[in-house]
Design brief:
CATH class: Alpha Beta
Helix content: 25-40%
Number of strands: 14
Distance between the termini: 46 Å
Bound molecules: phosphoenolpyruvate, cobalt (II) ion
Shape: globular
Order of helices and strands: HHEHEEEHHHEHEEEHEHEHEEEHEH
CATH topology: TIM Barrel
CATH superfamily: Aldolase class I
Strand order of the largest sheet: 1-2-5-8-9-10-11-14
Number of domains: 1
Amino acid sequence: MTHEWSPSSWRTKPARQQVAYPSESAVADVFSRLSRLPPLVTSWEIETLKSELAAAARGEMFLLQGGDCCESFDDCQSPNIAAKLKILLQMSVVLIYGCRKPVIRAGRFAGQFAKPRSSETETRGDATLPVYRGDLINRRAFTLEDRRPDPELLLRGYERAGLTLNFIRSLVEGGFADLHHPEYWDLGFVSHSPQAAEYHSIVQSISDAISLMESVAGADIRQLKRAEFYTSHEGLHLPYEESQTRQVPRRTGWYNLTTHFPWIGDRTRALDEAHVEYFRGIRNPIGVKIGPSITGQELVQLIRVLDPEQEPGRLTLIHRFGADQIAESLPALIEAVQNEQRTVLWCCDPMHGNTTTTADGLKTRRFESILSELEEAFAIHERAGSILGGVHFELTGENVTECTGGARGLKDSDLREAYKSAVDPRLNYEQAMEMALLITHRMNRNRSR
Ligand code: PEP
Ligand code: CO
Protein backbone atom coordinates (compact mmCIF):
# COMPACT_ATOMS: atom_id res chain seq x y z
CA MET A 1 0.00 0.00 0.00
CA THR A 2 2.06 2.89 -1.19
CA HIS A 3 -0.65 5.28 -2.31
CA GLU A 4 -1.25 8.52 -0.49
CA TRP A 5 -3.27 8.29 2.72
CA SER A 6 -5.80 10.88 3.85
CA PRO A 7 -8.56 10.73 6.48
CA SER A 8 -10.99 10.04 3.63
CA SER A 9 -8.88 7.74 1.43
CA TRP A 10 -10.83 4.76 2.88
CA ARG A 11 -13.74 5.98 0.74
CA THR A 12 -12.05 4.56 -2.36
CA LYS A 13 -12.10 1.04 -0.90
CA PRO A 14 -14.84 -1.48 -0.29
CA ALA A 15 -16.20 -0.95 3.22
CA ARG A 16 -17.99 -3.66 5.18
CA GLN A 17 -20.62 -3.07 7.83
CA GLN A 18 -21.35 0.47 6.69
CA VAL A 19 -24.77 2.03 6.89
CA ALA A 20 -27.10 2.86 4.00
CA TYR A 21 -28.73 6.10 5.15
CA PRO A 22 -31.94 7.29 3.49
CA SER A 23 -30.36 10.67 2.68
CA GLU A 24 -26.68 11.13 1.82
CA SER A 25 -26.98 14.91 2.12
CA ALA A 26 -28.24 14.58 5.71
CA VAL A 27 -25.15 12.45 6.49
CA ALA A 28 -22.87 15.04 4.90
CA ASP A 29 -24.48 17.76 6.99
CA VAL A 30 -24.02 15.79 10.22
CA PHE A 31 -20.43 15.02 9.22
CA SER A 32 -19.59 18.69 8.87
CA ARG A 33 -21.27 19.52 12.20
CA LEU A 34 -19.40 16.69 13.91
CA SER A 35 -16.07 17.74 12.51
CA ARG A 36 -16.46 21.24 13.97
CA LEU A 37 -16.99 19.99 17.52
CA PRO A 38 -14.06 19.95 19.91
CA PRO A 39 -12.24 16.62 20.23
CA LEU A 40 -12.86 14.17 23.08
CA VAL A 41 -9.23 13.27 23.76
CA THR A 42 -5.83 14.85 23.13
CA SER A 43 -2.74 13.73 21.29
CA TRP A 44 -0.75 13.90 24.56
CA GLU A 45 -2.97 11.32 26.17
CA ILE A 46 -2.83 9.18 23.06
CA GLU A 47 0.98 9.28 22.98
CA THR A 48 1.19 8.48 26.69
CA LEU A 49 -1.04 5.46 26.19
CA LYS A 50 1.08 4.36 23.25
CA SER A 51 4.21 4.41 25.39
CA GLU A 52 2.41 2.41 28.10
CA LEU A 53 1.23 -0.17 25.58
CA ALA A 54 4.84 -0.43 24.40
CA ALA A 55 5.79 -1.21 28.00
CA ALA A 56 3.05 -3.86 28.14
CA ALA A 57 4.43 -5.43 24.96
CA ARG A 58 7.81 -5.69 26.73
CA GLY A 59 6.14 -7.30 29.74
CA GLU A 60 6.58 -4.28 32.02
CA MET A 61 2.91 -3.33 32.26
CA PHE A 62 -0.39 -5.18 31.74
CA LEU A 63 -3.43 -4.06 29.75
CA LEU A 64 -6.94 -4.48 31.14
CA GLN A 65 -9.50 -3.59 28.49
CA GLY A 66 -13.16 -4.04 29.27
CA GLY A 67 -16.70 -2.80 29.19
CA ASP A 68 -19.99 -3.28 27.42
CA CYS A 69 -20.28 -5.05 24.13
CA CYS A 70 -22.37 -2.11 23.09
CA GLU A 71 -22.93 1.03 25.13
CA SER A 72 -26.45 2.38 25.11
CA PHE A 73 -27.57 6.00 25.21
CA ASP A 74 -29.98 5.20 28.05
CA ASP A 75 -27.09 4.01 30.20
CA CYS A 76 -25.38 7.37 30.01
CA GLN A 77 -26.23 8.01 33.67
CA SER A 78 -24.02 8.62 36.66
CA PRO A 79 -24.55 5.28 38.48
CA ASN A 80 -23.78 3.27 35.34
CA ILE A 81 -20.67 5.26 34.51
CA ALA A 82 -19.40 5.10 38.09
CA ALA A 83 -20.02 1.32 38.10
CA LYS A 84 -17.94 0.92 34.93
CA LEU A 85 -15.02 2.70 36.57
CA LYS A 86 -15.41 0.79 39.81
CA ILE A 87 -15.26 -2.64 38.23
CA LEU A 88 -12.22 -1.74 36.11
CA LEU A 89 -10.52 -0.20 39.09
CA GLN A 90 -11.20 -3.19 41.34
CA MET A 91 -10.07 -5.68 38.72
CA SER A 92 -6.96 -3.64 38.03
CA VAL A 93 -6.04 -3.62 41.71
CA VAL A 94 -6.34 -7.40 41.80
CA LEU A 95 -4.22 -7.68 38.65
CA ILE A 96 -1.58 -5.26 39.93
CA TYR A 97 -1.32 -7.47 42.97
CA GLY A 98 -1.23 -10.62 40.87
CA CYS A 99 1.27 -9.62 38.21
CA ARG A 100 3.27 -7.08 40.25
CA LYS A 101 3.08 -4.68 37.35
CA PRO A 102 1.27 -1.42 36.69
CA VAL A 103 -2.02 -2.00 34.90
CA ILE A 104 -3.28 0.11 31.99
CA ARG A 105 -7.07 0.54 32.18
CA ALA A 106 -8.88 0.97 28.87
CA GLY A 107 -12.67 1.05 28.97
CA ARG A 108 -14.89 -0.01 26.14
CA PHE A 109 -16.68 3.25 26.76
CA ALA A 110 -17.31 6.83 25.62
CA GLY A 111 -17.92 5.75 22.03
CA GLN A 112 -18.57 1.98 21.91
CA PHE A 113 -21.88 2.56 20.17
CA ALA A 114 -21.64 0.84 16.76
CA LYS A 115 -21.82 -2.92 16.20
CA PRO A 116 -20.90 -5.19 13.30
CA ARG A 117 -23.76 -7.61 12.59
CA SER A 118 -23.81 -10.95 10.83
CA SER A 119 -27.15 -10.29 9.16
CA GLU A 120 -28.61 -7.14 7.57
CA THR A 121 -32.08 -7.92 8.85
CA GLU A 122 -33.87 -9.37 11.85
CA THR A 123 -37.08 -11.39 11.62
CA ARG A 124 -39.63 -11.73 14.39
CA GLY A 125 -42.77 -13.67 13.51
CA ASP A 126 -43.89 -12.38 10.11
CA ALA A 127 -41.99 -9.11 10.30
CA THR A 128 -38.49 -8.53 8.89
CA LEU A 129 -36.75 -5.25 9.67
CA PRO A 130 -33.22 -3.84 9.38
CA VAL A 131 -31.02 -5.23 12.15
CA TYR A 132 -30.13 -3.10 15.19
CA ARG A 133 -26.58 -1.77 14.66
CA GLY A 134 -26.01 0.14 17.88
CA ASP A 135 -27.35 3.42 19.23
CA LEU A 136 -25.01 5.41 17.00
CA ILE A 137 -26.93 4.17 13.98
CA ASN A 138 -30.49 3.13 14.75
CA ARG A 139 -32.74 2.24 17.67
CA ARG A 140 -33.27 -1.05 19.42
CA ALA A 141 -37.10 -1.20 19.39
CA PHE A 142 -38.52 -3.48 16.71
CA THR A 143 -40.38 -0.99 14.48
CA LEU A 144 -39.53 0.23 11.02
CA GLU A 145 -39.25 3.78 12.29
CA ASP A 146 -36.78 2.80 15.04
CA ARG A 147 -34.64 0.62 12.82
CA ARG A 148 -34.23 3.25 10.11
CA PRO A 149 -30.63 4.61 10.28
CA ASP A 150 -30.70 8.20 11.51
CA PRO A 151 -27.55 10.32 11.03
CA GLU A 152 -28.53 12.66 13.89
CA LEU A 153 -27.67 9.75 16.19
CA LEU A 154 -24.01 10.25 15.30
CA LEU A 155 -24.20 13.66 16.99
CA ARG A 156 -26.18 12.28 19.94
CA GLY A 157 -23.54 9.55 20.33
CA TYR A 158 -20.65 11.97 20.18
CA GLU A 159 -22.32 14.14 22.82
CA ARG A 160 -22.93 11.15 25.09
CA ALA A 161 -19.32 10.06 24.64
CA GLY A 162 -18.34 13.60 25.67
CA LEU A 163 -20.67 13.55 28.71
CA THR A 164 -19.38 10.13 29.76
CA LEU A 165 -15.78 11.20 29.48
CA ASN A 166 -16.43 14.48 31.25
CA PHE A 167 -17.87 12.63 34.23
CA ILE A 168 -15.02 10.12 34.24
CA ARG A 169 -12.42 12.88 34.17
CA SER A 170 -14.17 14.76 36.99
CA LEU A 171 -14.40 11.66 39.14
CA VAL A 172 -10.74 10.86 38.60
CA GLU A 173 -9.69 14.47 39.20
CA GLY A 174 -11.83 14.63 42.35
CA GLY A 175 -10.10 11.64 43.95
CA PHE A 176 -12.66 8.91 43.25
CA ALA A 177 -9.93 6.69 41.81
CA ASP A 178 -7.52 7.28 44.69
CA LEU A 179 -5.84 4.00 45.55
CA HIS A 180 -5.59 5.18 49.18
CA HIS A 181 -9.38 5.11 49.38
CA PRO A 182 -10.77 1.83 48.10
CA GLU A 183 -14.04 2.61 49.93
CA TYR A 184 -14.80 5.27 47.27
CA TRP A 185 -14.95 2.64 44.58
CA ASP A 186 -16.27 -0.34 46.47
CA LEU A 187 -19.35 -1.68 44.72
CA GLY A 188 -22.33 -2.12 47.02
CA PHE A 189 -22.78 -5.87 46.82
CA VAL A 190 -19.10 -6.78 47.21
CA SER A 191 -19.60 -7.61 50.86
CA HIS A 192 -21.79 -10.64 50.26
CA SER A 193 -20.19 -11.98 47.12
CA PRO A 194 -18.26 -15.27 47.34
CA GLN A 195 -14.95 -13.56 46.57
CA ALA A 196 -15.31 -10.69 49.04
CA ALA A 197 -12.82 -11.93 51.61
CA GLU A 198 -10.03 -12.52 49.12
CA TYR A 199 -10.64 -9.18 47.41
CA HIS A 200 -10.55 -7.31 50.70
CA SER A 201 -7.35 -8.98 51.76
CA ILE A 202 -5.73 -7.92 48.47
CA VAL A 203 -6.92 -4.36 48.95
CA GLN A 204 -5.53 -4.43 52.49
CA SER A 205 -2.14 -5.67 51.23
CA ILE A 206 -2.06 -2.92 48.66
CA SER A 207 -2.98 -0.28 51.23
CA ASP A 208 -0.19 -1.57 53.47
CA ALA A 209 2.27 -1.48 50.57
CA ILE A 210 1.23 2.08 49.73
CA SER A 211 1.67 3.22 53.33
CA LEU A 212 5.06 1.54 53.49
CA MET A 213 6.21 3.13 50.22
CA GLU A 214 4.99 6.52 51.31
CA SER A 215 6.66 6.35 54.66
CA VAL A 216 9.91 5.34 52.96
CA ALA A 217 9.55 8.11 50.37
CA GLY A 218 8.34 10.54 53.03
CA ALA A 219 5.53 11.85 50.82
CA ASP A 220 2.28 11.01 49.10
CA ILE A 221 2.85 9.30 45.81
CA ARG A 222 0.78 11.46 43.52
CA GLN A 223 0.23 8.85 40.84
CA LEU A 224 -1.61 6.71 43.34
CA LYS A 225 -4.19 9.43 43.86
CA ARG A 226 -5.58 9.32 40.38
CA ALA A 227 -5.69 6.07 38.52
CA GLU A 228 -6.02 6.89 34.82
CA PHE A 229 -8.58 5.49 32.43
CA TYR A 230 -8.28 5.44 28.69
CA THR A 231 -11.15 5.08 26.26
CA SER A 232 -11.41 2.61 23.42
CA HIS A 233 -14.03 1.49 20.92
CA GLU A 234 -14.34 -0.44 17.69
CA GLY A 235 -13.67 2.04 14.90
CA LEU A 236 -16.47 0.65 12.80
CA HIS A 237 -18.44 3.63 11.51
CA LEU A 238 -15.84 5.24 9.32
CA PRO A 239 -17.54 8.59 8.67
CA TYR A 240 -17.82 9.06 12.46
CA GLU A 241 -14.13 8.24 12.91
CA GLU A 242 -13.07 10.40 9.98
CA SER A 243 -14.98 13.44 11.22
CA GLN A 244 -12.67 13.79 14.21
CA THR A 245 -9.43 12.79 12.50
CA ARG A 246 -7.21 15.81 12.82
CA GLN A 247 -3.77 17.25 12.72
CA VAL A 248 -2.66 18.89 15.93
CA PRO A 249 -0.12 21.68 16.45
CA ARG A 250 3.53 20.70 16.82
CA ARG A 251 3.05 17.07 15.90
CA THR A 252 3.22 15.28 12.62
CA GLY A 253 0.46 13.06 11.32
CA TRP A 254 -3.23 12.64 11.99
CA TYR A 255 -4.95 11.59 15.20
CA ASN A 256 -8.37 10.07 15.70
CA LEU A 257 -9.55 12.28 18.55
CA THR A 258 -12.80 10.44 19.33
CA THR A 259 -10.92 7.91 21.46
CA HIS A 260 -7.45 7.01 22.69
CA PHE A 261 -7.43 3.46 21.44
CA PRO A 262 -9.64 2.40 18.50
CA TRP A 263 -9.63 -1.15 17.22
CA ILE A 264 -10.53 -2.93 13.99
CA GLY A 265 -13.04 -5.76 14.44
CA ASP A 266 -12.51 -9.30 13.26
CA ARG A 267 -15.10 -8.84 10.51
CA THR A 268 -13.55 -5.72 8.99
CA ARG A 269 -9.82 -6.41 8.99
CA ALA A 270 -9.44 -7.38 5.30
CA LEU A 271 -6.15 -6.07 3.99
CA ASP A 272 -7.33 -4.14 0.97
CA GLU A 273 -10.54 -2.78 2.41
CA ALA A 274 -11.66 0.46 3.95
CA HIS A 275 -11.05 -0.10 7.67
CA VAL A 276 -7.43 -1.10 7.28
CA GLU A 277 -6.96 1.82 4.90
CA TYR A 278 -8.34 4.27 7.47
CA PHE A 279 -6.43 2.81 10.42
CA ARG A 280 -3.07 2.64 8.71
CA GLY A 281 -2.87 6.44 8.56
CA ILE A 282 -3.76 7.48 12.11
CA ARG A 283 -1.18 7.96 14.85
CA ASN A 284 -3.20 6.38 17.69
CA PRO A 285 -2.21 3.05 19.11
CA ILE A 286 -4.58 0.60 17.44
CA GLY A 287 -5.93 -2.85 18.12
CA VAL A 288 -6.89 -5.55 15.65
CA LYS A 289 -9.19 -8.39 16.61
CA ILE A 290 -8.06 -11.67 15.11
CA GLY A 291 -10.12 -14.84 14.99
CA PRO A 292 -9.66 -18.40 13.68
CA SER A 293 -9.92 -17.43 10.02
CA ILE A 294 -6.65 -15.46 9.88
CA THR A 295 -3.47 -17.12 8.60
CA GLY A 296 0.07 -16.34 9.68
CA GLN A 297 0.78 -14.85 6.30
CA GLU A 298 -2.25 -12.55 6.42
CA LEU A 299 -1.29 -11.47 9.90
CA VAL A 300 2.21 -10.55 8.82
CA GLN A 301 0.83 -8.54 5.91
CA LEU A 302 -1.52 -6.72 8.25
CA ILE A 303 1.34 -5.91 10.61
CA ARG A 304 3.42 -4.53 7.74
CA VAL A 305 0.59 -2.29 6.58
CA LEU A 306 -0.58 -1.14 10.00
CA ASP A 307 2.81 -0.66 11.63
CA PRO A 308 5.25 0.12 8.83
CA GLU A 309 7.58 2.09 11.11
CA GLN A 310 7.70 -0.64 13.77
CA GLU A 311 6.68 1.89 16.33
CA PRO A 312 6.62 0.62 19.94
CA GLY A 313 3.08 0.44 21.31
CA ARG A 314 1.47 0.99 17.92
CA LEU A 315 -0.17 -2.39 17.44
CA THR A 316 -2.14 -4.61 19.79
CA LEU A 317 -3.32 -7.98 18.50
CA ILE A 318 -6.46 -9.01 20.33
CA HIS A 319 -6.95 -12.71 19.71
CA ARG A 320 -10.36 -14.31 20.14
CA PHE A 321 -10.49 -17.91 19.06
CA GLY A 322 -12.69 -19.76 21.51
CA ALA A 323 -11.59 -22.28 24.11
CA ASP A 324 -11.87 -25.12 21.59
CA GLN A 325 -9.85 -23.41 18.91
CA ILE A 326 -7.05 -21.46 20.57
CA ALA A 327 -4.58 -24.35 20.82
CA GLU A 328 -4.92 -24.95 17.12
CA SER A 329 -4.83 -21.34 15.95
CA LEU A 330 -2.57 -19.29 18.20
CA PRO A 331 0.86 -21.01 18.07
CA ALA A 332 1.29 -20.54 14.31
CA LEU A 333 0.40 -16.87 14.57
CA ILE A 334 2.90 -16.26 17.36
CA GLU A 335 5.51 -18.03 15.28
CA ALA A 336 4.73 -15.94 12.21
CA VAL A 337 5.16 -12.73 14.21
CA GLN A 338 8.39 -14.01 15.74
CA ASN A 339 9.78 -15.03 12.34
CA GLU A 340 9.04 -11.52 11.12
CA GLN A 341 10.92 -10.21 14.19
CA ARG A 342 8.08 -7.98 15.19
CA THR A 343 7.06 -6.81 18.63
CA VAL A 344 3.33 -6.43 19.16
CA LEU A 345 1.22 -6.35 22.28
CA TRP A 346 -0.67 -9.63 22.51
CA CYS A 347 -4.01 -9.38 24.26
CA CYS A 348 -6.54 -12.19 24.79
CA ASP A 349 -10.27 -11.60 24.29
CA PRO A 350 -11.72 -14.81 25.72
CA MET A 351 -15.30 -13.65 25.09
CA HIS A 352 -16.01 -13.53 21.36
CA GLY A 353 -14.97 -17.07 20.46
CA ASN A 354 -17.12 -18.54 23.23
CA THR A 355 -20.62 -17.30 22.43
CA THR A 356 -23.43 -19.84 22.36
CA THR A 357 -27.22 -19.64 22.27
CA THR A 358 -29.49 -21.20 24.89
CA ALA A 359 -32.42 -23.43 24.00
CA ASP A 360 -34.74 -20.44 24.39
CA GLY A 361 -32.68 -18.21 22.15
CA LEU A 362 -30.51 -16.10 24.50
CA LYS A 363 -26.89 -15.44 23.61
CA THR A 364 -24.64 -16.54 26.43
CA ARG A 365 -21.09 -17.53 27.36
CA ARG A 366 -19.88 -20.02 29.93
CA PHE A 367 -17.56 -18.63 32.59
CA GLU A 368 -15.56 -21.86 32.43
CA SER A 369 -14.95 -21.54 28.66
CA ILE A 370 -13.83 -17.94 29.07
CA LEU A 371 -11.42 -18.91 31.82
CA SER A 372 -10.19 -21.91 29.89
CA GLU A 373 -9.36 -19.83 26.78
CA LEU A 374 -7.52 -17.35 28.94
CA GLU A 375 -5.52 -20.02 30.76
CA GLU A 376 -4.59 -21.59 27.44
CA ALA A 377 -3.56 -18.21 26.12
CA PHE A 378 -1.15 -17.63 29.01
CA ALA A 379 0.28 -21.12 28.62
CA ILE A 380 0.69 -20.96 24.83
CA HIS A 381 2.47 -17.61 24.95
CA GLU A 382 4.72 -18.82 27.71
CA ARG A 383 5.69 -21.97 25.81
CA ALA A 384 6.43 -19.93 22.71
CA GLY A 385 8.63 -17.45 24.58
CA SER A 386 6.08 -14.73 23.87
CA ILE A 387 4.25 -12.42 26.28
CA LEU A 388 0.53 -12.21 26.86
CA GLY A 389 0.40 -8.56 27.89
CA GLY A 390 -3.31 -7.92 28.21
CA VAL A 391 -6.86 -9.14 28.53
CA HIS A 392 -10.05 -7.90 26.90
CA PHE A 393 -13.45 -8.57 28.46
CA GLU A 394 -17.07 -7.76 27.95
CA LEU A 395 -18.19 -7.01 31.46
CA THR A 396 -20.30 -4.71 33.56
CA GLY A 397 -20.22 -3.42 37.12
CA GLU A 398 -23.90 -4.33 37.36
CA ASN A 399 -25.53 -7.46 38.65
CA VAL A 400 -26.79 -8.81 35.30
CA THR A 401 -27.34 -12.46 34.37
CA GLU A 402 -25.90 -12.89 30.87
CA CYS A 403 -23.02 -15.37 31.19
CA THR A 404 -23.47 -18.72 32.95
CA GLY A 405 -21.21 -20.33 35.56
CA GLY A 406 -18.84 -18.71 38.02
CA ALA A 407 -18.90 -19.10 41.78
CA ARG A 408 -22.66 -18.67 41.98
CA GLY A 409 -23.18 -21.27 39.27
CA LEU A 410 -25.64 -19.30 37.12
CA LYS A 411 -27.57 -21.63 34.84
CA ASP A 412 -29.26 -21.12 31.47
CA SER A 413 -32.57 -20.99 33.31
CA ASP A 414 -31.37 -18.04 35.44
CA LEU A 415 -30.45 -15.84 32.51
CA ARG A 416 -33.84 -14.18 32.03
CA GLU A 417 -33.67 -12.72 35.54
CA ALA A 418 -31.55 -9.73 34.60
CA TYR A 419 -30.49 -10.04 30.97
CA LYS A 420 -29.90 -6.50 29.71
CA SER A 421 -27.28 -6.56 26.95
CA ALA A 422 -28.54 -5.50 23.54
CA VAL A 423 -25.87 -7.54 21.79
CA ASP A 424 -23.29 -9.80 23.50
CA PRO A 425 -23.47 -11.28 27.03
CA ARG A 426 -21.18 -9.68 29.63
CA LEU A 427 -19.57 -10.99 32.78
CA ASN A 428 -21.43 -9.51 35.71
CA TYR A 429 -19.71 -7.81 38.59
CA GLU A 430 -19.01 -10.96 40.60
CA GLN A 431 -17.96 -13.00 37.59
CA ALA A 432 -15.58 -10.24 36.49
CA MET A 433 -13.99 -10.04 39.93
CA GLU A 434 -13.73 -13.81 40.10
CA MET A 435 -12.03 -13.82 36.72
CA ALA A 436 -9.48 -11.25 37.89
CA LEU A 437 -8.80 -13.27 41.03
CA LEU A 438 -8.34 -16.48 39.06
CA ILE A 439 -5.91 -14.77 36.65
CA THR A 440 -4.01 -13.61 39.71
CA HIS A 441 -3.84 -17.13 41.10
CA ARG A 442 -2.35 -18.27 37.84
CA MET A 443 0.22 -15.51 37.81
CA ASN A 444 1.21 -16.27 41.38
CA ARG A 445 1.55 -19.96 40.56
CA ASN A 446 3.92 -19.08 37.76
CA ARG A 447 6.00 -16.81 39.92
CA SER A 448 6.46 -19.39 42.61
CA ARG A 449 7.58 -22.08 40.13
C1 PEP B 1 -16.78 -6.92 19.87
O1 PEP B 1 -15.69 -6.68 20.41
O2 PEP B 1 -17.88 -6.61 20.39
C2 PEP B 1 -16.79 -7.65 18.58
C3 PEP B 1 -17.78 -7.57 17.72
O3 PEP B 1 -15.69 -8.40 18.46
P1 PEP B 1 -15.04 -9.21 17.24
O4 PEP B 1 -14.71 -8.19 16.20
O5 PEP B 1 -13.84 -9.82 17.87
O6 PEP B 1 -16.05 -10.22 16.79
CO1 CO C 1 -19.19 -8.09 21.60
